[in-house]
Write a structure and sequence with these properties.
Strand 4, helix 7 and strand 5 form a beta-alpha-beta unit. It is built from eight helices and seven strands. With 222 residues, it is α/β, with parallel strands linked by helices. The chain is globular. A seven-stranded mixed sheet has the order 3-2-1-4-5-7-6, sandwiched between helices. Helices cover 42% and strands 20% of the residues. Bound molecules: S-adenosyl-L-homocysteine, 3,4-dihydroxybenzoic acid (DHB) and magnesium ion (MG). Magnesium ion binds next to loops.
Length: 222
């Protein structure tokens, strides 16, 4: 099986669910024009995040790593009236593009993009007693994923679902100690999630138009 086959299946799945959505296509097109890197989740995984948001009955979602707002739009569309998605982004330009994309998708009332290094913003949120969030999606820079996980647990309640992107990295996480700090960050995160006393987790590897990677899923207990 090749990446071509994976991409063909992703295209088949997109067609199955009605083809490209204009607002999401527009968000990706603007992100590209504005020079953002093409690292948002695939449409198929975006749809999966949407379904997970619904399955959680989430009213409050926290995202770490906004980019152009693509995954934020998928999740925010699954929120009920009065629901909120807080999304954290370090890069002011990315946040500006995301704000525009979210607003053109008619979601500015539901999406709150906060600019700054996520570790700082998360620290402020914990100190101010924000939350609890019903679902957290971790998808920012890879080395501090473990610290993002710890903050996510502090901002959670029993039953909160924590999801993390890119935890398999083309299989490199299984190849022993790595000099690549993104891979090392993921190995540290995966081990922290697996042994956390308040988390029941699983990691699912997958393939698609963006290659081979995986997502972690963990539910917070008492
Ligand atoms: N969730 C997005 C993709 C996020 S890409 C989607 O699927 O559509 C990762 C994003 O994390 C980038 O926009 C990057 O600027 C941001 N980022 C990197 N380091 C960060 C940090 N320390 N704090 C917050 N955001 C950060
Ligand atoms: C990168 C980051 C991501 O969140 C992703 O899904 C793919 C790649 C990166 O930084 O290379
Ligand atoms: Mg990612």
């Amino acid at each position: 099986m090749s990446t071509d086959t994976y991409a063909r299946v992703d295209a088949y799945l997109d067609d199955l669910f009605g083809g490209p959505d204009p607002q999401l296509q527009q968000a990706l097109a603007r992100s590209e024009t504005e020079g953002l890197p093409p690292i948002s989740v695939s449409s198929n995984l975006g749809r999966f995040l949407h379904v997970l948001t619904l399955a959680c009955g989430a009213r409050q979602v926290l995202e770490i790593g906004t980019l152009g707002g693509y995954s934020a739009i998928w999740m925010a569309r699954a929120l009920p009236d009065g629901g909120r998605l807080v999304s954290l982004e370090f890069d002011r330009h990315h946040a500006g593009v995301a704000q525009r994309n979210v607003s053109e998708a008619g979601l500015s009332e539901r999406v709150d993009i906060r600019v700054g290094p996520a570790l700082d913003t998360l620290g402020d949120m914990v100190r101010q007693g924000e939350g609890p969030f019903d679902m957290v999606f971790i998808d920012a820079d890879k080395p501090p994923y473990t610290e993002y996980l710890q903050a996510a647990v502090r901002l959670a309640r029993p039953g909160t679902l924590i999801v993390a992107d890119n935890v398999v990295r083309g299989g490199e996480v299984a190849a022993g100690p790595s000099k690549d700090e993104a891979v090392a960050g993921m190995q540290r995160f995966n081990a922290a999630m697996a042994s956390h006393p308040r988390l029941r987790g699983a990691i699912v590897q997958g393939v698609g138009a963006k290659g081979h990677d995986g997502m972690a899923f963990a539910v917070v207990s008492e």
